[in-house]
Design a protein that fits this description.
The protein is mainly beta. It has one domain. 13% of the residues lie in helices and 47% in strands. It has a six-stranded mixed β-sheet, with helices on one face.
């Protein structure tokens, strides 16, 4: 399961070994906190996927890991069925336009990203 680490400087999405294979990604996704524009809690993250998977893995309605390319830019997804999630919009110039991630700890993540003294692991 994806681990979300938040400190005073960045948000880091650490993928389990299988998730790294599914996402075709060797390194964690690291986003400086000043690049985060908006955080939304969502019941079902699948409708938030947009564009085409390239590269990554997608089993419709079951899982989605990797990069999604669209006219809006690249999104990163780490989504499994049956779990709520968060949609994190990023400012222009970031590696991704937004992140779509399933987590049971969306409220804690949103609070941690609002806090100036956030540090620790979420989910």
């Amino acid at each position: 399961m994806v681990s979300l680490l938040v400190d005073s400087r960045q948000l880091e999405l650490q993928l389990a070994p299988l998730e790294r294979v599914l996402a075709h990604r060797k390194e964690p996704v690291r986003i400086p906190r000043d690049r985060i524009a908006k955080v939304q809690l969502v019941e079902d993250p699948f409708p938030w996927l947009r564009g085409v998977r390239a590269p990554g893995t997608h089993v419709p309605g079951r899982l989605a890991f990797g990069t999604w390319k669209s006219v809006f830019g690249d999104d990163f997804a780490a989504v499994r069925s049956g779990r709520p999630g968060v949609v994190i919009d990023l400012v222009e110039g970031s590696e991704f336009v937004r992140l779509v991630v399933t987590t049971r700890h969306g409220v804690a993540l949103a609070k941690a990203l609002q806090s100036d003294e956030a540090a620790g692991e979420i989910g």
